[in-house]
Amino acid sequence: xxxxxxxxxxxxxxxxxxxxxxxxxxxxxxxxxxxxxxxxxxxxxxxxxxxxxxxxxxxxxxxxxxxxxxxxxxxxxxxxxxxxxxxxxxxxxxxxxxxxxxxxxxxxxxxxxxxxxxxxxxxxxxxxxxxxxxxxxxxxxxxxxxxxxxxxxxxxxxxxxxxxxxxxxxxxxxxxxxxxxxxxxxxxxxxxxxxxxxxxxxxxxxxxxxxxxxxxxxxxxxxxxxxxxxxxxxxxxxxxxxxxxxxxxxxxxxxxxxxxxxxxxxxxxxxxxxxxxxxxxxxxxxxxxxxxxxxxxxxxxxxxxxxxxxxxxxxxxxxxxxxxxxxxxxxxxxxxxxxxxxxxxxxxxxxxxxxxxxxxxxxxxxxxx
Length: 369
Known about the structure:
Elements: E1 3-9, E2 16-22, E3 29-36, H1 40-50, H2 57-81, E4 91-102, E5 109-113, H3 116-123, E6 127-129, H4 132-137, H5 147-154, E7 160-166, E8 169-175, E9 184-190, H6 193-203, H7 212-215, H8 221-228, H9 248-258, H10 264-286, E10 291-296, H11 303-312, E11 317-320, H12 331-344, H13 352-355, E12 365-367
Helix pairs in contact: 1-2, 2-3, 6-10, 8-9, 8-10, 10-11
């Protein structure tokens, strides 16, 4: 067996996702999963920085340490759940928690916290982290990185297949059935991040469970048009984005520009439609029919979004990645375990056709146990 642990905390920051996975076979076999809670204090601190609010380097440094402790706790917990010990784990792949991601401009940069020194010291397991910056050093966006994993586990020679990840942000991976075709993958825009922010503002909960609240509202065409006017949606790939662009302030700015008072549930429903519309437009533009759409990430549990995707592609199979043996909530964490394996083997982990890098490079830094 080749046992690895993957750790992931995404834009939604609802938990640190941890998987213990056997990568020794042809297909990843998940042995255990664990969602490790993030305290409101830490979450609010990360959000303060991600939103560009006033802070100092001391706050960032303390959060780096505290997130490192959380990631270590999550790794140890999932190893216990798998019935294993740290001694048999080959490596931990830790994505970290993104606090800012600016892939464009004269000086592109990205920052993930969750000190890997703490993870390796606490667990005694070699840890691979800081995956994004090597790709950026090679001229890429540093994201998305998971399409390389999607290609490895989901590509089919029989049908054009797409993997749609709906986390805080949404992204797609286009896997053409022709084996020599380059993989296309990019962020299409917000996934759950705006839905969570709007729910937190109006319902004192950071999630619209199942999209039930959105289902009570109606799409407001004028607001949807205003939202879709953002120039990110018309940018060609490679492209990636984050909370520093799509956030509550972004919604409020669009609403202020409209000058209309709308029911909160109508706004939530329209935000769901924004996710569906941007994903659908990207899929139509960059993939050829017939196609099969596999969905992963937290958005797979949003009934409104899933129904919208199914309606957008009638006659196409729209389902979760569970159909092919990978639970949708754990695909990204598994991907970073897989990327850690690639790094230890000295193999490239990025796809230049996705990130825009000049070449394929080995990703991440290795912290030896």
